[in-house]
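sorry to bug you again but im stuck and you know this stuff better than me. what follows is a protein written twice so to speak, once as letters and once as structure tokens for the fold. id like you to explain what the token line says about the fold, in plain words if possible. anything you notice is useful, everything is just below.
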Amino acid sequence: MDIEKILREKQNRVTPERVAIFDFLKTKHIFTYNDIMDNFEDIWRSSVFRTLNLFLSLWIIRKLDLWDNIMSYELNDSEHHHEHMKCCKCNSIIIFHSNDICKKIFAEAKKMWFEIKSHSIWVIGTCKNCLN
């Protein structure tokens, strides 16, 4: 994903802060606002907040509802798309690939003339370690 190209195509400024935040996000699977703030003490909180909102509006990142009252995000990279399972005992997050499920979702959307921008599937349960 080329952040500078995406920003220019959508007529947004390419700033050092936006590029730095994006480069940082590429190193994380799931991240929070606080993760970014902890890593960039020299960037204003409002700039981080605006950058996250911009990235959301451009579908660069997607929100994840982890049911822990902390908003989390991940890159919205269609080349590495995956879904999540969360253990309700230890809170571990397990990634799984969902090509068959996604094909069905997109086929249903196409039948209804619905254009999907993003989707997320969360499965809540108990992981193997907690079952033992």
Summary: The longest helix spans residues 45-57. The chain has two domains: 1-77, 81-132. The mean pLDDT is 86. The longest strand covers residues 83-87.
